[in-house]
Amino acid sequence: MTARDHYRMLGLLPGASESEIKAAYxxxxxxxxxxxxxxxxxxxxxxxxxxxxxxLLKHGEExxxxxxxxxxQYVDELLRxxxxxxxxxxxxxxxxxKEADYFNRPEWHDPLLLLRYGGRVVWLAFAVGxxxxxxxxxxxxxxxxxxxxxxLLLAGVISWLFILPQRGRFFRLGRLHTSxxxxxxxxxxxxxxxxxxxxxxxxGEVADGKPCRIELLKTLEIRTLTRGAMDHxxxxxxxxxxxxxxxxxxxxxxxxxxxxxxxxxxxxxxxxLPFSSFLWRFVAGLAVAxxxxxxxxxxxxVRSKASYLFTPGLAIKxxxxxxxxxxxxxxxxxxxxxxxxxxxxxxxxxxxxxxxxFDLVVGFxxxxxxxxIPLFRQGRVLTDLYNEGFRNYQEFPVYSLFYPMIRWLx
Length: 410
Description:
With 410 residues, the protein is mainly α. It has 13 helices and 4 strands.
């Protein structure tokens, strides 16, 4: 140990006087004496303190050589970096533990687990159908349909490449934490602690329920990198704002029931409607779910928690979807609807290119920014953020189709 290390052991700066050395020694010796401190490390620390004390009384005036100074600085830097790494590791570990504890709660764990099981079932069905369906169409119906379903065939092959290596544990995702009694309680109105705020969804109600959280973002910078044909990267720098809307227990209960009604209506329409086209059953299911949800919330006197998603841009895209599907559909007797062989190419084009075409066309007009402001009036905080240029989500192909749908359903 260098002289600097001995000074540091006693908590002193180099060049401290003899009286300061003795005072520091008495204080530390009293603290770490094995008779007073039962910590196993106390005896080691007490011995080091004694060695430093004896060294400084004899050699306290000696100055470290330049080499010792550099070595001490190097050691200090290494220790500082090690402390920072340990601190970052501790913070990350605590954050991961909090996230794990949060998502292990039944209200999060079980719905997510059910979604994962449902997703695995859908994924498996998709992997089978994505390969067999295009082949069936090309062989028995219309060979020209293979052009529109080639992406579907490729997606099916890629899906099987992921499924086969984990086939033994594909449906072993865990067990539910929720009982049927918990499910019934989930839809009951259970008032909590009144935080003194007014509910944003029920006039005259106090906010004694779980608040509703909305995340908005604003794109500050778009970075592009091109390495040649078919090798491009795009990076977004976004500014995120999270808004917490106070909610009453009544609004919370009705929002949960509304989500259940929407999901049930969608599933019933997918199964029971007599349309030949599965796609039109899905569209009709969304329309029926929306109508039932609006009626339910109006009767209960509760505002929808997803009204902020309905923007002029989304309304225009929904209109384009309905118009495009109508052009390739045949409306027969008995409310039956059939789609032509162009449906696959049309749907693929709408999913992957509608957002890009929308931005290219509407982006030239001065009202482009208002395309992302909700059609229904929101609170003052949300309105101010929308006027500053914040949006509900990033306008990515595929993502901008499914994200608002999932947020609206659940």
